[in-house]
Design goal:
The complex is a heterodimer of chains A (475) and B (109). With 475 residues, chain A is of the alpha/beta class. Helices cover 58% and strands 7% of the residues of chain A. In chain A, β2, α14 and β3 form a beta-alpha-beta unit. In chain A, α5 runs antiparallel to α8 and α6 runs antiparallel to α7. Chain B is mainly alpha-helical. The chains are: A alpha/beta (475), B mainly alpha (109). Chains A and B meet through α1, α2, α3, α4 and α5 of A and α1, α2, α3 and α4 of B.
């Protein structure tokens, strides 16, 4: 197999990857898109395997090692993909980012140790300066991706007592100075490696990158994790592209930059939805502002009602919009909500779901959670599609969402001023289910709860919605 | 005339691929952003190609250990990424079948 044929097959694989992303423009084409992705990966791996067999006469040990790695890793990946709960998707994704990051570091180390094995330099010759720079960048981004993703994974799972894995931001004086000093150190060691190809300098850069990855993610609060996961997605892509640069492999560059731009766009979308600036996210160190909860919150009166009252209002409505928040997923109430919607549709009520971009713990998370509960996707609408309709809606049911429906976003001076919200307060009646009057992530009081048109139904989302479904039969 | 260096050619590919990625990803429907993230995880596992070369073609213990470990790490993503994406997309498809009769008329998209 000539190198030209190999490269052309890599081109085919690259086109398959583009098709895989293109397929995701609609649910009906997405499965075919995913098949394209799998085909692309298969072409790339088989081509490489054939190339390896042709390059070496005695493929024995190398091939055994390769297969062993493939079987172990593939087995773990398959089991994880089958077992993971949909609420745990953000952790799985963070975990997978860390795998890519670490793999990139390992490949870079192997390439620095034996550049001739990858055709980067003739045996015994020094690595060309361009490739040195690329290898170092690939390893640096990979290492940041790895350690950053490990921290993100810990924060997302919220199960570990380890302080760095806690949802609340970790901050210390001079944090930014330490980061800056480490970055300067990395540049200095990098320059040393570029000029001398010195091993200690290379490992120094990688070690600094591991530390930096941790330091960049720990000051970010649990609420901002959707941005962090998207950002690390982008980093993992650029790590792959960096490896592609150093090995002179266009397919790796193409696949890596597709992923890199995808992650960057998702972080941009998440930032916009959370009213954060993109730059402050890339630089890290956000989500740590101490927000003072309003003190008079407990004193004000709200109108509260029972699930039966809510069912009565819903039974007499013509149009209903359901607004699910992450609290709904925590209470595992998706199926109950689907039953409620089905009951309402049976009675001739028009039912829609309205999804805020940051309703879940990662981009599009709430859509997957609803899809898992077998909610038809044509009932589910994005914020921009549905926002104009709240004014003509009889009843809105807010389930476990808070900041994303807070009208304070329209009040200049508010901490969330300018954040795009679901315009729930324009509906004729609003039913809000919450466990208590506790504030949302932003620590803000929500004016919506005190409005005359709002009825609060306190209690666990799953239990409350199930009671509504039951009560609806008697209306 | 000299041939452009590898780095320059690679940079051209990089910029053009970023451009393609930008346009393709903006077309992804927001409802599928989680599957997008899972599938991009699988796609970035393309580094497995470099890992395979490292595992099979290096001669030192360091190179082989690093290569084999990298193959295993990337393989987790290759299999895990594509399979979990398919699992999620199947969930969206099930709904499509059930909802097919009422939407069949207007399902031009």
């Amino acid at each position: 197999m000539s190198i030209n044929l190999v490269t052309l097959l890599y081109l085919v694989a690259s086109v398959c990857f583009i098709q895989a992303l293109k397929g995701l423009s609609h649910p009906t084409t997405s499965i075919r898109g995913n098949a394209f992705g799998m085909a692309g990966m298969a072409i790339a791996m088989v081509t490489t395997a054939v190339l390896i067999v042709r390059l070496i006469d005695d493929a024995g040990t190398g091939a055994t090692l390769l297969l062993a790695g493939l079987v172990v890793g593939g087995g773990i990946g398959t089991v994880m993909a089958q077992r993971v709960a949909m609420t745990r998707m953000p952790e799985l994704v963070a975990f997978m980012h860390s795998m890519i990051g670490l793999a990139a570091v390992f490949i870079a180390i192997a390439a620095v140790a034996e550049p001739h094995a990858f055709g980067v330099a003739p045996r015994g010759a020094p690595i060309p300066t361009g490739n040195r720079l690329e290898l170092m960048l690939g390893a640096f981004i990979g290492a940041i991706t790895f350690s950053g993703s490990v921290i993100a994974f810990g924060k997302l799972s919220g199960k570990y007592r380890f302080r760095l894995f806690s949802g609340s931001p970790v901050q210390f004086p001079g944090q930014h100075l330490v980061n800056l000093a480490l970055a300067v150190g990395a540049v200095a060691l990098g320059a040393l490696f570029l000029t001398s190809e010195s091993w200690p300098a290379f490992f120094g850069v990688v070690a600094i990158a591991f530390v930096l990855g941790v330091l960049i993610i720990i000051p970010i609060g649990g609420a901002d994790m959707p941005v962090v996961v998207s950002m690390l997605n982008s980093y993992s892509g650029f790590a792959a592209a960096g490896i592609g640069f150093s090995l002179n492999n266009p397919m790796l560059i193409i696949a890596g930059s597709l992923v890199g731009s995808s992650g960057a766009i998702l972080s941009y979308i998440m930032c916009r939805a959370m009213n954060r600036s993109f730059i402050s996210v890339i630089l890290g160190g956000f989500g740590g502002e101490a927000v003072t909860a309003s003190a008079d919150a407990a004193q004000r009166a709200v109108r509260s009602g029972s699930a039966d009252d809510a069912a009565f209002i819903l039974g007499n409505a013509e149009t209903v919009i359901l607004v699910p928040g992450y609290g709904l997923a925590v209470a595992r109430a998706q199926h109950a909500v689907k039953d409620l919607a089905a009951k309402l549709v049976e009675r001739g009520v028009t039912v829609k779901y309205a999804i805020h971009p940051v309703a879940g713990r990662m981009p599009g998370h709430m859509n997957v959670l609803l899809a898992e509960a077998e909610v038809p996707y044509d009932q589910v609408f994005e914020m921009d599609e549905v926002n104009g309709e709240f004014g003509q809606t009889d009843v809105v049911v807010v389930l476990g969402a808070n900041d994303v429906v807070n009208p304070a976003a329209h009040t200049p001076g508010s901490a969330i001023f300018g954040m795009p919200i679901l315009e729930v307060s324009r509906a004729r009646t609003v039913i809000v289910n919450k466990r208590s009057m506790a504030a949302g992530y932003a620590g803000l009081d929500n004016e919506l709860f005190y409005m005359d048109k709002t009825m609060m139904v306190f209690g666990d989302a799953k239990k409350t919605v199930e009671e509504m479904v039951k009560a609806l039969d008697q209306v | 005339m000299d041939v452009a260096s590898h780095t320059v050619t690679n940079l051209i590919i990089f910029v053009l691929a970023l451009y393609v990625g930008y346009h393709v990803v903006w077309n992804v429907t927001p409802a599928l952003h989680t599957p997008l993230m899972a599938v991009t995880n699988a796609i970035s596992a393309i580094v497995i190609v470099g890992a395979m070369l490292a595992a099979a073609l290096t001669e030192t213990t360091l190179g082989r250990v690093m290569g084999t470990a990298a193959v295993a790490l990337a393989a987790v993503n290759v299999f895990g990424g594509f399979l979990v994406t398919r699992r999620m997309l199947e969930m969206f498809r099930k709904k499509e079948r059930r909802a097919a009769p009422p939407t069949a008329a207007g399902a031009g998209s």
